[in-house]
Amino acid sequence: MAIFAGAHLRATLFGPGQARLAVFFDHLDRQRSGFSGAAASRSFGRRAFSQLVVQTARNDWYLNADLAPLMRALEPVCAGYEGVTGIGFSMGGFAALKLSRALRLSRVLLVSAQVTPFADRAPFDGRYRRFAGGMLPALDLTGADIAPGLQGLALFDPLNRSKDRDHARAIAALAPGVRAVALPFGGHPATGLIRRAGLWGHLQRMVAEDRLQPAAILGLRHRAREGSLDYARRLADALEARRGRGG
After folding, report:
1. DSSP secondary-structure letter at 236?
2. Are 83 and 108 in contact (CB under 8 A)?
3. Arithmetic mean of pLDDT over the chain
4. CA distances for 156 relative to 41, 73, 81, 168, 181, angstroms
5. N or C terminus of the chain with fewer C-beta within 10 Å?
6. Domain 2-244: CATH architecture, name and number where available
7. Which of 203, 223, 222 is CA-nearest to residue 213?
8. β-pair type (49-56, 20-25)
9. Distance separating alpha carbons of residues 36 and 151, to the nearest angstrom
10. How wide is the angle at C-alpha 156 spanned by C-alphas 150 and 159, nearest 5°?
11. Per-residue pLDDT tens for 67-76?
12. What is the Cα–Cα distance from 167 to 74, expressed in whole angstroms?
């Protein structure tokens, strides 16, 4: 069911009528060329969630002329659900925060998300300058966008050369109910180790069953690293780099 269909943004609802709603967002895709096909998660569908997929045609962090009408269209749709959960990676994590009040989000899982894509507002990170021309700075995230009582986690890899740690800390300061949790050797996104170990379904289950706590995430990461050659290689590379710096 199409909730909103603009030139820049779209929102599609799957399985309406359930008590709970899960919301998913497009992440940064350097090969993006217009809208991709919207699809529901089978895992959340099996657990009796309605699902809303929010998409952008460009890597513009959703900061375009469609944002305000999209928000107006979302508010009545989300009002009837007992609980609304958002899941966003990178640019999608930013969108989850920006739209959290309009979506009435109660919980959120942010993976390697940004607090802003603008380098002048996040001097520690200039990765997204190439996309800035397509974004409207006046629409950037502020505290007023955060849903009241929003709870959740902002996952980041503190060892990745990206600036995800600084973004996670800034997000936690802006949204006090969102806790920054470090997942070393996950990469970007920070759940890479968990996914490579075949445990992504377990993480989805945690979200769906409202068990998304720091201890549970860290326990899942511990399972992912057991016997993982990928983890062993990344650990060895980090130790070698540290020795090279004289650490």
Report:
1. H
2. no
3. 92
4. 23, 32, 29, 7, 6
5. C
6. 3-Layer(aba) Sandwich (3.40)
7. 203
8. parallel
9. 29
10. 160
11. 999 999 999 9
12. 26
Q: What is the DSSP letter of 129?
A: G
Longest dimension (CA), the chain: 59
Q: What angle do CA 117, 123, 127 make, to 5 degrees?
A: 45
Distance CA(49)–CA(15), nearest Å, equals: 7
Q: In 3D, which of 114, 119, 163, 120 has the Cα closest to residue 141?
A: 114
The two three-digit tokens of residue 170, written as one number: 């800034």
Give long-range contacts, CB 8 A cutoff, 24+ apart: 104-108: 104/75, 104/78, 104/79, 104/147, 105/23, 105/147, 105/150, 106/147, 106/149, 106/150, 106/151, 107/83, 107/150, 107/151, 107/152, 107/207, 107/210, 107/212, 108/150, 108/151, 108/152, 108/153, 108/178
Q: How many residues does the chain have?
A: 247
| Lowest model confidence (mean pLDDT) among 99-108, 221-230, 231-240 | 231-240
Q: Which segments of 34-141 does DSSP mark as H helices, in order?
A: 42-46, 67-78, 91-98, 100-103
Distance (Å, rounded) from C-alpha 152 to C-alpha 174? 13
Element (H, E) at 110: strand 107-111
- Strands 2-5 and 20-25, sheet pairing: unpaired
Question: pLDDT by residue (tens digit) across 10-51?
Answer: 999 999 999 999 999 999 999 999 999 999 999 999 999 999
